């Protein structure tokens, strides 16, 4: 009789526990969905061709957000130019060349550190080095370089994982036919790892596109209603623009705020979707 | 026969090696520039002033304690929200959820992770602050709690993904063994799976905390930016200022090379050190766990 | 005539364990030499020394001489790439590269800088003929190589090893995963190929050793116990240990 009771008790505990966990997970999921849907609903009315391609006017209280969109685009491209070759190169080094010694462990610790540095500290660093010391000024160049270093850890770790997942037997075969290490990497390892690398790059750039703190003192302009002409120009950017219009400008029409938020979300999530699609398509076509 | 390595290959290999070591270079550079601009503050501001309770730069009050306190209370609050929710969700995804639920939940968590923090701050300012103000009848909705709530949301994806990975990595045989001995699924989770994934879960929590401490925009937008040292629990519902928000808010108006400038960099050094410590500990835990499991499994 | 001359060869792994002890072996040209013995005997290790593939592994040091056509291949200044092009190797599991059948074969040629389409096509057909695979795949050379059956993949690997017209072919238990028909096809190819190439084979069974060996070397725990003609060693071995292994008393 006692044994039966305790088993019953255990069942009740399990049911309660499962229900509790399920509820929390469900609540989290619903909240996330609601956030996106809410912004979408309140921001959609603001989206129009003029909004996306027009310049801000009336102290940004009307008009469009074209300079911010373009600025974010330029920054994303600039970040890619600096971080992608460097990141993939580092990943190739760690995966194909480095042996497990003190130096390679130091490199990995450095990467972990770079990943953990708060984004505003990157902003300080960018200010100190690129804006002031190297005298680039508040510019797309300074902002891109800062964002690039911030994005490096993400690219390196996903790229390295992608490279490592390529079967070792391929490398052995290539070497045994008389290939050099670089030939093996260039012709077999890198192409096979490319989808995974690409996914990591896109996810890294997606993060860079959405960051505000690193660009606060390195590139972001409060109100610059024209497009940047050179890498040495400052520019508006979507995340900073959203921050500004939601906290710094009195009398800002709510619809424009939600519209800007929506554009930013679409930009960022669009990249996310792209990365996911690449990842699943590559998995389906893999020949190993 | 001589070694036949073409110049091309030599050059490329060299570039690859340089890229490999670049991470070390960058950490060094960051540290260097932080120190370069931050250390002078020790010369310019006497130590007792730095550790005082008043932060009012206009009148040369550079006490960083309120900022430290602000960061602490907001992070603490965020942790108290993010850890239970994050762990519960991770356990749910890993142990309880049916396949279809997992396929929906995981992308949703990734969605949250991908949302720029400024968007969450934006929602916080527009929606959450007024909700809170009316609900608790506060003078303002810009409080530490608001910040904690948003920060918690931002830290949840980090905790969920790392913890879920850790739980996933627990060998199936552990669970099967427990079930075979007559344990319920619930008991298995709490007494077998979770302890086995302990170091991964701890790492997840630490990384989540690290993420929370380092967050800037969301907290800046919703915590009210009043550099007051929170000493009572009720002050959770009044405005505070975090270290990150201070830098972000004030750097724009500061003359480069001034004392204020240097002190802001000093705060940057503190943030850098905290994240260094958190991340090194977290990775050391993972490293030790990996070595242990390699020994067991070999 | 001797193709590969191995003299006083020792090899140590980085943890100090001795893998090969004092190997003295002369591998003749245009014949199948079989290295057989129980697991852990060092046969695969020796195989990989011949095309310097052991460079990839955790080898601490080695001593002695390994001469191919009189040239010491252990020389640190040796052009290892050129050496490996003169030697083809087939591994125990068929490892096809993630390309088409044709590309699997032209890969080695492209690495060597051969790009002329005519040359590539000829090499593809020739090597597939030699591996007895041409008839089966000639109409689908652009299909992915992974679509082939296990036996076909392994014969593709054999063809791949032949595509650069090497002088030596090394095979490490090439038929261990294959069905008897595929095994038979591979062994038949080897009988043809030995007329042109020097073949060193680690068999996966003693029966295979007996079927294929012109010459055979018995390895036990890193030492070469006995080396003689295939006809003799399996029926009338000199050393007791060889006899015990051949008779199946241990293995």
Notes on the protein architecture:
Chain A is globular. In chain A, helix 8 runs antiparallel to helix 11 (254-285). Chain A has helices at 2-43, 49-53, 66-97, 102-116, 119-133, 140-164, 168-176, 181-210, 213-216, 238-247, 254-285; strands spanning 56-57, 62-63. Chain A has a two-stranded antiparallel ribbon. Helices cover 76% and strands 1% of the residues of chain A. Chain B has a two-stranded antiparallel ribbon. The longest helix of chain B is centred in the last third of the chain and has 39 residues, at 259-297. Chain B is built from 13 helices and 2 strands; from the N terminus they run H-H-H-E-E-H-H-H-H-H-H-H-H-H-H. Chain B has a single domain (70-251, 259-297), classed as MetI-like fold. Chain B has 298 residues and is mainly α. Chain C has 10 helices and 10 strands. Chain C has a domain at 1-79 and 209-251: P-loop containing nucleotide triphosphate hydrolases (Rossmann fold, 3-Layer(aba) Sandwich). Chain C has helices spanning 43-50, 80-85, 101-111, 117-130, 134-137, 150-162, 180-193, 206-212, 230-233, 240-246, and strands at 2-13, 18-28, 32-36, 59-68, 71-72, 87-90, 168-172, 198-202, 215-220, 223-229. Helices cover 35% and strands 27% of the residues of chain C. In chain C, the strands form 2 sheets. Chain C has a 6-stranded mixed beta sheet with strand order 6-7-8-3-9-10, with helices on both faces. Chain C has a 4-stranded antiparallel beta sheet with strand order 2-1-4-5, covered by helices on one side. Chain C is globular. Chain C is an alpha/beta fold. Classes of the chains: A mainly alpha (288), B mainly alpha (298), C alpha/beta (251). Chains in contact: A-B, A-C, B-C. Chains A and B meet through helix 1, helix 3, helix 4, helix 5 and helix 6 of A and helix 1, helix 4, helix 5, helix 6 and helix 9 of B.
